[in-house]
Automatic annotation (TrEMBL):
Subcellular location: Nucleus
A GO cellular component annotation in the UniProt record: nucleus
InterPro entries documented for this protein: REX4_DEDDh_dom, REXO1/3/4-like, Ribonucl_H, RNaseH-like_sf, RNaseH_sf, Znf_C2H2_type
Family label: Belongs to the REXO4 family.
Keywords: Exonuclease, Hydrolase, Metal-binding, Nuclease, Nucleus, Zinc, Zinc-finger
Organism, as annotated: Juglans regia
GO biological process, one term: rRNA processing
Pfam family membership, one: RNase_T
Protein name per UniProt: RNA exonuclease 4
Residue ranges occupied by any C2H2-type domain in the UniProt entry: 17-46
GO molecular function: 3'-5' exonuclease activity; nucleic acid binding; zinc ion binding
Main location: nucleus
Domain of life (superkingdom): Eukaryota
Coiled coil stretches, renumbered: none
Length: 358
């Protein structure tokens, strides 16, 4: 083998195809292509403010900069110039100090569940500006022979400005076995004059659909609002109602806020980790949870992701999940693309909340 051939052979052995997002390296171009197909890299992924590496979730990013085995250079710079809440890196310690004054917010003042302030046990603020998003939280009592059946006993809805739209006790349709007083703070007296579940459900639907027919969703030109919450499926099930999936913003199912194995964090953990204060220390207050999950949603929505690469289609914009662009190319065409070109056609497998502000 002559020297030129030997050099080419050596180059072949040492060539690595590097992912431009997560920096993983592969010996074969086909392996990089397969990685890009399933990784769903995009500008919407959390990324390190130091090395710009993409991470699947904020938990992964947190491990990258302040975990048990962080990347050394990133950890060093982050410890001096990084925000532990939003995980952004700033130009200087002074910029970081100024940022922290607004990033760490004070907990909401609970309005309590001991006795509603409204004479008819409910409140609908008819003069409130109807917002783009509404947060909901329900408190459950127990039904059934062993008290394990969740029954909605109180519900709260707030707007983006943290104004109460609806706050009411709810009378379940079946007998209550246990009031779960240690968690709910509710007793038989609280629910004595409560509104029936079907009445509360109709009020909520009227608010969410902005008094339009429920069949006219915003996707088709209607005025239905985004519904924000944590484990929304649970709340909706207890209320006996459904709502269009593309209008739900659930912090328990939002990929960037989930664990690396796609298991949900508790709302209590998310608020302490991303907003910097504690909730649910004693009796759960639906107003406190509503305000907290709305703040979390607005923080995620306000993230400024550079909108480069392939434009997201209208259908994908209204969907929780986007569709990969790789299927429109043949295998040999993909292998001819550079790593950067493969990244440009990659799309996320979830609908980023930053799109709600577009």
């Amino acid at each position: 083998m002559d020297s030129e051939a030997a050099a080419d052979f050596s180059k072949t052995l040492t060539t690595r195809h590097k992912c431009p997002a997560c920096y993983k390296q592969y010996k074969k171009k086909g392996h990089l292509v397969e990685h890009m197909k399933i990784s769903n890299h995009s500008v919407h992924e959390p990324r390190c403010g130091v090395c710009q590496k993409h991470c699947k979730s904020f938990e992964s990013l947190r491990e990258h900069v302040i975990g048990p085995l962080p990347k050394a250079i990133c950890s060093k710079i982050f410890s001096e110039q990084g925000c532990d809440l939003c995980l952004r890196v700033f130009d200087s310690p002074s910029s970081l100090s100024e940022h922290k004054r607004s990033c760490c917010v004070s907990p909401p003042t609970p309005i309590g569940t001991v006795k509603m302030l409204y004479s008819d046990s409910n409140f609908v603020n008819q003069n409130c500006r109807v917002p783009e998003a509404i947060a909901i939280d329900c408190e459950m009592v127990g039904g059934g022979s062993d008290g394990s059946l969740d029954l909605c006993a109180s519900v709260c809805l707030i707007d983006e400005d943290e104004n109460v739209i609806l706050h009411t006790y709810v009378r379940p349709q079946i007998p209550i076995t246990t009031y779960r007083f240690e968690i709910t703070g509710l007793t038989e007296e609280h629910l004595r004059d409560a509104l029936p579940l079907n009445v509360v459900r109709e009020k909520i639907l009227q608010i969410l659909y902005n008094a339009e027919p429920t069949g006219r969703e915003r996707l088709n030109g209607g005025k239905a609002r985004l519904l924000v919450g944590h484990a929304l499926e649970h709340d909706l099930d207890c209320l006996g109602m459904t709502y269009p999936d593309h209008l739900l913003r659930d912090s328990a199912k939002y990929y960037p806020l989930m664990k690396t194995n796609l298991v949900s964090h508790s709302l209590k953990y998310l608020i302490r980790t991303y907003l910097g204060y504690d909730i649910q220390a004693g009796v759960h207050d639906p107003y406190e949870d509503c305000v907290s999950v709305m703040r979390l949603y607005k923080r995620m929505r306000s993230l400024n992701h550079q909108q480069d690469g392939i434009e997201i289609s209208t259908a994908a914009y209204h969907s929780q999940n986007t569709i990969s662009n790789y299927g429109s190319f043949k295998a040999e065409e993909l292998e001819q693309m550079t790593a950067d070109e493969l990244y440009e056609i990659s799309q996320p497998n979830y609908r980023c909340w930053c799109l709600d502000s577009k």
